Amino acid sequence: MAPASKYLCLASVLGWLLLLPLFLPSAVGWKFGAPTNACFDMMPRHERIKENTPKCPYKLELQDEATTYIPGETLTVCVTGSLFQGFLLQARVVGGTLPVGTFQENLPNNTQLMKCSSDNDSVTHSNVVTKADHTCFKWKAPSDDLGDLRFV
After folding, report:
1. Closest CA to 34 of 134, 93, 113
2. CATH entry, 36-151, from 3.40.50.720, 3.40.30.10, 3.40.50.300, 2.60.40.4060
3. Average pLDDT value for residue range 72-87
4. FRET pair for 67, CA 20 to 30 Å: which of 13, 26, 133, 136?
């Protein structure tokens, strides 16, 4: 093969490699955690993913039958129901849009802390590995009593 045709062949292969991503399906989710623009409206912004059915297949439960928080104390909150991959979890004042409290560093595998408005105020997935149908997180309540809170 003549040197000019080698370069032409190499250029052709490189051209196809550059165009290949255009023909592959686009990513359907956020495989390295929720995007920061989901922090306040909790919308996942997936492409080509259908919404869950009207009845959510997951529940958020507090362990040890906890129904209230004590400022500065730690609660365990669990995502239960079905196996899942991606998520974003926060505690909020009822009716509020800002996360409150902090999640602790001893996280389950395949999850990570996230900063929405302050360090460690949210937790999300770190990859697309399926999470257990009972995945729990330690959450430390804010030092002040903020009234009624909910996990979202």
Report:
1. 113
2. 2.60.40.4060
3. 86
4. 133
